[in-house]
Amino acid sequence: MLTRLGLEFRVVTAGFEEHTDGADPVAVVTANALGKVRAVAARAGVPAAGAILAADTEVVRDGVVLGKPPDAPAAARMLAMLAGRAHEVITGVAVIAAGCERTAHETTRVHMRPLSDAEIHWYVGTGEWRDRAGGYAIQGAGAALCARVEGDPSNVIGLPMALVAQLLADAGLWPVPAVPAV
């Protein structure tokens, strides 16, 4: 997704343990994103002409952060809880650039269609639920589970691109100058 913005990047594992506890889901995802970006900055430093970007996405139903299912039965239970209902996908984004930290969040409402036990079993069998907030991935087979999305679909995938572009623009790092044609 970052490549589409013309950005060069490398992926660095933060080594930060995410937390899903807390009364305010926005505070949870923002704290997790900030924890990740700070962990990478502490280990690798902030590049002089670049930034460190981190994000954390959670699925929230009725104000409760669902987290990532630890196993297939938990994934099936999460999907059953979401089936036929709307929920929020909230992503916190943090950027550190030139000694300045910026955070923001995006909320998108997803309407999951009613699902039969067979459909849930099928989806869990794809394995796509692994390491996914709420136990599904809309960019893959999970697209068949969702009736509609209100808001930024890239947020549901895990990185709200308009928000990322704004944060990077605020830091003076985007848009990337075009390379002149030769």
Describe this structure in words.
The two termini are 27 Å apart. Helix 2 packs across helix 3 (117-126). Helices cover 31% and strands 23% of the residues. The model has no long low-confidence stretch (mean pLDDT 92). With 182 residues, it is α+β, with helices and mostly antiparallel strands. The longest helix has 20 residues, at 25-44. It has a single domain, classed as Alpha-Beta Complex (Maf protein). It is built from five helices and five strands. It is globular, with a radius of gyration of 17 Å. The protein has a five-stranded antiparallel beta sheet with strand order 2-1-3-4-5. The protein has helices at 25-44, 72-82, 117-126, 153-157, 161-170, and strands at 52-61, 64-65, 86-97, 100-112, 146-150.
